[in-house]
Amino acid sequence: MPSTNLIVPVVLWGKHAPTHCISSVYLSRDQKTLVTGCYDGQICIWQVDPETLKMTPRCLLVGHTAPVTCLSRASIIQDNNFIVSSSEAGEMCTWDLVDGKCRESVKLTQIHTNIQAYHMCNSEDLRLFCNGYYAEILIMDAFSLEILFCLSSKMNPDWISALHVLRPSSRKDDVVLAISITGTVKVWSLLGHENKQSEPIYENESKQIRCLNALALNCCAYNQRTVLIVCAKYCQIYDAGDFSVLCSIQAPSGERWMSGDFLAPDRVLVWSTEGKGYLYKLPANSVPDHKGFHGPSVDHDSPVLYSILAHPDNKLLSCPPAIRFALTSVGGKQRRLLLRGDSAGVVSLWNVDDAVNPVPQKVPSHAPIVLTSLEMAWAEMNPSPVGILDQFSHPDEPEIKLTASIYLLVANRLVVGREDGSIVIVNATHTVQLQLLHGSHQQLDDWPPHQLLLGHNGRVNCLLYPHHVHPRYDKSHLVSGGIDFAVCLWDLFSGALLHRFCVHAGEITQLIVPPQNCSPRIQKCICSVASDHSVTLLSLSERKCVTLASRHLFPVTTIKWRPLDDFMVVGCSDGTVYVWQMETGHLDRVLHGMIAEEVLSACDETVADELGGAVSAGTDLQGLANPAVHFFRGLRHRNLTAMRAATARGLAALQAGERGGGGGPLAEPARARRAPLTVQGFRSNPADPESHILFFDIEGLIVELLSEEYSAMSPASLEAAGLITSEYMKVAALTQSASPDAAKKISGILAKMKEGAETMQTKLQAKAEQLKGHLDPKDDQGQKRQRPRDMSLAEPPHTMEIAQILLSLLHAWGLDPDLDRVAESKLGLLRPMVPVCFGVVSRHGHMSVQLPTRLGGWAEACAAAPDDPLLLNSDLPPELLRQEKLTRLFSSKLHWELSTTLTTNHLLSIVALANTLMSMSNASFVPEQEVARKLHRPTTRTSSWAGDEEREEQLAAQQAHIKQGWSLLATLHCVLLPDKVVAAGAKSFKRPQVEMLARRWQHHCLEVREAAQALLLAELSRLGPKGRKSLVDNWAQYLPLYTHTESINPHAAQKEPHEKVPKDPEEEFEEEEEELVRKPSSKAELKRQQTTAVVLLGVIGAEFGQDIASEGAAGNKRRKDGDSRKSSIVEGFTLSAASNNLARLTALALTHLLLAPGSSRLPAHTPLRRAAVDLLGRGFAVWEPYLDVSHVLIGLLEMCSDADKLVPSMTYGLPLTPQADSCRTARHALTLIATARPAAFITTMAREVARVAAAPASAPPPPAAAALQRGRAEVLRGIELLIERMHAEVAELLVEVMDIILHCVDQSHLKSKGLNEVFPAICRYNQVSHCPATRRIAVGSHTGQLAIYELRAGRCQSLAAHGGAVTACAFSPDGRYLVSYATADNRLSFWQSTAGMFGLGAAQTRCVKCYSTAPMADVARLNPARLARLVWTNARTVTLMLADGSETRFNV
C-alpha cells in the first residue's frame, strides 16, 4: 500500500456488497454508532439513528489480517469517538470513528479473547482489562496501546478464561474477579497506582470450583452478591461470598451457551450459539434479598424460562454469531438492547425491556426490532454503486464478476480477469472518467476501446506483470493463473496466448517473481503456487517448467529464497519447512519445529537489497551466531558456483557503491518513481468479486507533471525561467584561489554547469527518484517498480489525465458558479456524476474507505436542497435525478462535512496541484489546447512571420487566461472555501487541521510545502487574535524546554531527557485527528506533539508575532525593539502577561533544532530541521532578542555549505535530496535574515571574521572558522544581495563589509584583476577605491575614518580623515596619492603613503594638501549614494563631479 500520507484513495465499489461475516459487535452508549468486526479482518462502522435505530453502513476499516475478536470503547468522554479493536493475530488498533483513521496500532505476542474497558479509581480515563491465551491479565492504555501492568497468579497459574472488574459499593478500590480455564476463581484488588515498575501483583485470594472452560463471568450489578458463570453446557449462579453454587441452568438441547448477564437481582438473560436469548427467573435461594437466600434448593423451585428472543424464521447459522448485551442512554432514557451479528452479515437488535415482564402460562418469543445488513443496504441503493468496468454490463444479462486485476503504470492500462475466464485490458484513466465524470465521452459508444484475452476456462485467479517487478523480464509478457489449473503467458501488445503451462493439479492461487540475484536460468522464471500445495518455477523464456515442488502435505503459506545457495524455502501451514534446490528440482530436506522457524528467519536476514542485489557482508557476519545460518553454510560446500557468483556480485556492488558517490544533489540513487496513480483490486473475502481503489499519489503526480514540463525545456530556458542559477557559481569561483589559468577554469566551470544542465534532462528521470519508492502491492517480494523508458503502447502521457480526474473529483463545484464555468471551459475540469467514496490512508498502512451506502444518511439533506429547474424538465428517470442532485450537494457541501482529515488532505491536494499547473506553461485539460501546447514549445529562435507573431499573441493571451483560472481555483480552496461552504448552508463544516498543516511546513515536495504554508496561514489569520491565543495556550504546554546554555552547547543537549525528535523522518508527518483535551499517552506521541508545537508556535510567532507591533512603531526603529515586544503580547504570544517567556522558549527550541548535531534520533536533514531553519529566517525580527545571532548564522552557513554548489532556486519544483533541500532552505533563511536585519548580519559576520583573523596561527582555529571557510560563497552572495536591495544600510557599515569581502574572496584574484571585476557590487560605492598597482584598497566610513587595506602585507590602517561621513575616495592611477572628500565638512584631502627607508618600518600615510569646497545644495543631499564622484584625469589632477552636474578640478 502506498506509504505516504498525501494520498487520496477513491473507491469504486461495484454492484456487490462486500461479504461481512460478523465476529464481534459494539454499540456506543449514545446509540449513534454501531461497529462490527468480521472474520476477514475488516471493521464496519454504521451510523445509527438514536430515535429509530435505523442503521446505515458508513465506512469500512481495513488493517487487521485476522478475525476481529474484541471491540471496546476507548474513552469515557461521550464525544470522544475512539474504539479499540483486537484480532486473533495479536494485532490491536485504536481507531478514530469520525473518519476511520488508525491512531495507534501494535502487534502483541499475547492474543486476547476478551477486553473489558473499565474506569479505575485514580486514573483519568478508561483502562482496558484483557484476558486471553496467556496466564496473566493485562491492563492496557487505550490510546498508546502500551501494557501498563499485569496481574499474575501464584496459585495454579493458567490461562484466564473470563474476568469481571467492579468497584464494591462501600470501598475505594477496584476488584478484579477472574476464573481460569481449570476452574480456579481469583480475586485481585487494585488501588489505581500500580505500574510496570512495581512488584508482580498476585491475587489476594483464590478458590478451586468445579467449573472447567468458563466462557463468561458476570457479577450482579444490583447487589454484588451473586455471580453468573457461563459454561458451554450449563450456566451457574454462585454466591459471591463463599463461591458455592446456588442453582444452575442447562442449555437447551442442541445448543451451547455463549454468555449472559443479570437483568435484575432475580432475572438473567443467557444467550446461545444458535443466536437466541433466553430470559430466566431465578429461584428464591439465588436471590440475595429473599429470606430463603443460600438455603437448601427446593425441587419444584428451579430457574424458570419465561421469554425468548429469537428470529421468527429460525434459520441455521454457519458459525456462532457475535452477541452483546448493551446498555444505552439517549436523552436520559435508558434502554437495554441485545445485539447480534451473524455469519450472513445481518445485524439484529432486540429490545430486552419488551421481554422482561413475564406473561403467565406461556413463553413468548420476541422478534428483533431492527434487522439490517450490508447486502440490504446495497440493495436499497438505486442506481447501484459504480464499478470500474460498468460499461461491459447490460441491465438484462447477468453480470460477469471481476476476480483479479493489475494496473500497468507505464502504459496506463488496467488488466482485469473475470469469472468467465476472459481478461479485459482497457485504458485505466478513460474507464475511470467514464464511471465518475460527466463529459462528451458519455455519448460515445464502446469507449474506451478494450482488448479481450480468451484462454482460461473458468475464473481468473491472479495476474502478474513481471516487468513491473524487475526490468529483466520482457515488457510484453503478462502472466495469468486460473481456476482451470493453467498458467497462461500472454503477449500484452498483440493479445496472443504465447504458452499455456499445465503442471499444477489445483487452481492457481499466487504468482510471484523470484529475487534478482538467482542464477541466470531462474531469473527468467516466475513462481506459481496452487491449491494442490504445489509450487513451480516456470521459465518464460524456455516456455517450460524448471522445478515442480509438489510433495507438500499442507497448504503453502510462505515462500522464501536463498538465491546464493540455489534454495527455495517453502513453509506450510502446519509449520513444516521444505528446502528445494531450484536448478535441479531436488527436495533437499524437510524441517520441523524450532529449526524450521529458524531457517525461515535466517532467510529474512539475507534478503537482497533492491539496488545491487548483493547481500552485504554485515548481515552475514551477524548471522553467524544463528545456527540456521550454519546449517546453510554446511550445505554450501557442494555449491561452489553459487559462492563464486556471490563474491563476484559483492565486488560489483562495492564498485557500484563507489561510483554512486559523486552524483551531486540531483542524482539520487535510482529508486523507483512514485506512481501518480495506482489501481488496486480490493476484496474483503476471497469469494467476493473485486472492488477497486484508486490511489492518487499527489507527490508522484506533481513530480511527473514537472518532469514532463522541465524535460521539454533547454538549460537556457530553465535558467531564464529562474529555475536554476549560474551566478552562484561565479561567486563560488571567487572563493577558490586563482591560478594563471583561473579564468579558463571559471569559464570551464560555467560551461560544465551548462553541460550539467543539459544532462539534467536525462537526469530528470533520476530526479524525483528520491521520492520513497513505492511497494507494488501485487507482489510479495516487495521489490520496487522500475520505469521502462520506452513505451511500446505509445500514447500521449497520461499524467495530465490523472490530474484532470483528481481535480474534477476534489473541486468544490457549485460554490462559485463563475469559477465553475471557467473551470469547465478554460481549464477542462469535468463535473462528477456520482458522489465519490473517498478513503483515508493512516499510519502503518491501515486504511478506511467510505461505503456508498452512507448516502442514505443524506436523504433528508438532499430533499431539503432546492431543485434545479433545468434538471426537472429533462426526461431523466427520477432515481438519476436524485443522484445528480445528491452529487451536486455532495461536492459543494457534504464533501467538506465528512472529517477534518479529509478536508485537510483534499485542500492540500487541490492547492498543490493548481499551483503546479499554474507554474507550467499553458497547462489546461481541454483537449484542443493540449494539442496546441504540445506543438507550440517556446522556441529560442525569433520568428519572422507576421502570422506567427499574431499566433504568439493569441497563445500568450490564452496562457494568461489559463494561469488566472488556476490561480482563482487555488484561491477558492485556500482562502474562500470555509465562508462559502457555510453560506451554502453547511451545519458542520470540518475545518482543515492546523497541526496536520504545521507538520508539512517543510514537506520535501515543494508544491505540497507551499500549499501547506498557504493553507496554514489562511487558517491562522481566519482564527483571529483570540483564536490564535487559545491555540497558542493549547500548544504551549508541549513546547520542549531548553535552558539557554543547552540549546547552544551541543554536548549538553544530548543529555536532554526528551529531545523532541521524531523516531524516523516519515513519522513526523503522521497526523492525528483530535481535540487537545487528552494528555499524550506514549513517548512517541509526546515527541510528535512536541515537534508540532515547535513548528506551530514558530509559525504563529514568525507570521503574527509582530503584526500589531509594526503598526504602532513604524517610524522609530529603536523603540520598535523595546516596545513592540509589549504590544505583541496582545497577540497572545506569551505564557504569562509579565514575561515574554514563550517567544524565548520558541526561539530556543528552534535554535536547538538548527544546531543540535546530527544523530540517529535527530538526523542531520529532516523536514523538522528545515522547518526550524525556515522559521528562524521568517521570524528573525521576533526571535532576535533571544538568539545568539552569531551561532545561528554560523549554523546556517554550515548547512548551506554541506551540499553541492548547484542547488536549484526556490521555485524549482522537483524534490531534491534531503541535503540539497536543507541547503536551499538555509540559503533562503540567510537572505531573509540579512534583509530583515542587515546591520545585525554584517556586524555579526565582521565580528566572526575578526575573531578568526585574531586567532594565533599556532592555536587550533575557532570552531566558526571552518564554517566561515566553507560558507564563504554564501556570505558573498548575501552581501551582494544586500548591496542591491539595501544600498543605504550597507553604506553605514562599509568598513565591516570590506573586512568580510576580503576574508571571503581569495586574495589571488586581486593580483591580476581590479576589485570592480572581481566583486563589482561593492564598487558601486564611491567611498571604495582599489589600486591594482600598489595592491591597496581604501574605504571611507560613515564616521569619517579612512581604512586603507594593504593586500601585500595583509594589514589595515585607519586614519581620522574627516569630521563626518566620507562621501568618496579614489587612488591616483599610479597609486601614489589617495584623494578623499566629505560633504559633511566640505573638505577634499590628498593623502600620500611614504614607505620607510628601503621599505623598512611602517608605511606612513599623511595629508599632503587640503581644499575647502563649496557647500552642497541641500536638495542634492537627498540621495547620498549619488552625491559625488572623484575622477583622476591624470597623475596629478582630480575632478570632483557633484550630483547637480557641476565639476571642479583640484591639483596635488
Blueprint (SSEs and pairs):
Blueprint: E1 7-12, E2 22-27, E3 33-38, E4 43-48, E5 55-62, E6 68-73, E7 82-87, E8 91-96, E9 102-107, E10 112-118, E11 127-132, E12 137-141, E13 147-152, E14 160-166, E15 174-180, E16 184-190, E17 201-202, E18 205-208, E19 216-219, E20 226-230, E21 234-239, E22 245-250, E23 257-264, E24 267-272, E25 277-281, E26 304-309, E27 322-330, E28 333-341, E29 346-351, H1 352-355, E30 365-366, E31 370-373, H2 374-380, E32 402-408, E33 413-418, E34 422-427, H3 428-436, E35 450-454, E36 460-464, H4 466-469, E37 477-482, E38 487-491, E39 497-501, E40 508-512, H5 520-523, E41 525-530, E42 535-539, E43 544-549, E44 556-562, E45 567-572, E46 577-581, E47 587-591, H6 593-605, H7 617-623, H8 627-636, H9 640-659, E48 677-682, E49 691-697, H10 698-711, H11 715-720, H12 727-734, H13 742-767, H14 799-810, H15 817-827, E50 837-841, E51 847-850, H16 859-864, H17 869-873, H18 878-892, H19 900-919, H20 927-935, H21 946-983, H22 994-999, H23 1006-1036, H24 1044-1048, H25 1050-1053, H26 1083-1104, H27 1107-1112, H28 1117-1128, H29 1141-1155, ...
Parallel strand pairs: 13-17, 26-30
Antiparallel strand pairs: 1-49, 1-50, 2-3, 3-4, 4-5, 5-51, 6-7, 7-8, 8-9, 10-11, 11-12, 12-13, 14-15, 15-16, 16-18, 19-20, 20-21, 21-22, 23-24, 24-25, 25-26, 27-28, 28-29, 29-31, 32-33, 33-34, 34-35, 36-37, 37-38, 38-39, 40-41, 41-42, 42-43, 44-45, 45-46, 46-47, 48-49, 50-51, 52-53, 53-54, ...
